[in-house]
Amino acid sequence: MKRIFKFISAVLTLTVLAFVGGSIFYGTKTVHDLLGDSKKLKAAITSLTHEDQIGFAKVLKQEERDGKLYTTLKFVETARGDMLSTVLEKEYEIEGDIIHFDTLIVTFSDQAVMDGKARSLYLWRRIYGENMSPAEGYPIETHGTHPERYAGLLRDLKLPEQQMFWEAIWDLANDPEALRDHGIKAIYGNAVYKSLRPGLIYIFKIGADGHVYPETVLDM
Fold it and tell me: What predicted TM-score, i.e. pTM, was given to this entire model?
């Protein structure tokens, strides 16, 4: 019985994740070790290519209720390298017609990748209206989890290492002092807003500076 108890305790010790002093631990391994020593992770980051489009939104309906305008919209996140493929699709109803779209941009330093060229990840965080605070916004991606559009990025890493990586990415956004030690050049938010109208599609693209902006086209 004691041997079984010791075995269970050992398994739990190895599988518990903790965030201590800006480093996420998995057993005795930290995300700093993972980013600094893992050739598989560096190869995965190196495989990231420049992206032009990361999603789009369209109005499904707008209506007034009790003297207030409400917008029902569909938000679509597109796959990497395939603008016609959808990895996430959600509907939201928001008061007003001015809608904010919030992204988290993660830029890796040139030392963190194998070819010496900086790379970036683009994570959708939340959507909120003009009459809401950002904290009240509706989530797009779930904090701490891997975004579907990057589901295959870390396939060569062990599952615990994948989990550690994504939890670190989300948590380090709140710990800028730790960024330099983790091969990450910057993590910053980029919120854009637009007055939405039916009959239009708002395509979210990325500029050369890494910032996200909406491009408006007719919904044919």
Answer: 0.77
